[in-house]
Here is the input.
Amino acid sequence: MTSANDTAATATTTFRPSGLTTDDARNVLPVLQLDDVTKTYPTSPPVHALRAVSLTVRPGELVAIVGPSGSGKTTLLHLMGTLDRPSSGTVRLTGLDVATMVDDDLAALRATRIGFVFQQFFLAEHETILDNVADGLLYAGVRQAERRQRAREALELVDLGSRLRARPTQLSGGQRQRVAIARALVGQPAIVLADEPTGNLDQATGGAILSLLDQLHDRGVTIVLITHDRGIAERMPRRVEMLDGRIVADTPVAPPQPASLNGDTPALHATPPTPRGMP
Ligand SMILES: Nc1ncnc2c1ncn2[C@@H]1O[C@H](COP(=O)(O)OP(=O)(O)O)[C@@H](O)[C@H]1O
Ligand SMILES: [Mg+2]
Here is the structure.
């Protein structure tokens, strides 16, 4: 058993950006690896949503997946997030082949290694934002006191540390999306998958959310951002372009982030965040 004090003390190591355990693994093992992945929806006629997609995401990367509506972005995110299985090809998350895992194991993998952010926030309206974020740890086998402590830290990271008792309905859209981002981060996932996270926000508010993603990237968090907006994709270090279910362009992979790859990952909340232009 740990006392509340111990919990607070150990919490200083929270928010390491990857679920990997050794420095070697952190250097070598991709967080996400898709090989020759296809997805065909068995409608009539069938829809070939993904065709021979291969993609590798390494620790510390911030990747934009960009393409017009219907190009297969959300399908790709669902496969990356193990929410769906490919029709053929392999999806590996932190080295684990999704095809070899039963649904229960996949759910556990999802709960511990992936943080999701969606356009629609998906917050429980009747719960405080502290509990909304703490619920992100429900399946991680963490006791309630520690869930709350880690949720507090995650909310501080997105500059909502002073609103812990607020309910989502009392917050602006930009603030709600920051709660959703805190919930995605609280389990220290290996990767954060964000599907059009600024889609429901005005431009200024959306810009602030993108700045927050930039800051998290600077702190070593691995992020895949899906967007149909070229302007948003342009500001990302790596852009993967999709058209008709295929990857048609992939900018050169950015050099590894020294801070996150040399095994000396900074604790993400060591310095309180100074968000740029938060709404
Ligand atoms: N559950 C589904 N059943 C059948 N077709 C689908 C389903 N989900 C997506 N599609 C089709 O797959 C294609 C890719 O969709 P999607 O991945 O949502 O693209 P995007 O996110 O880029 O708009 C589209 O033609 C879409 O209509
Ligand atoms: Mg989509």
Summary: The first strand starts at residue 32 and ends at 41. The longest helix spans residues 203-218.
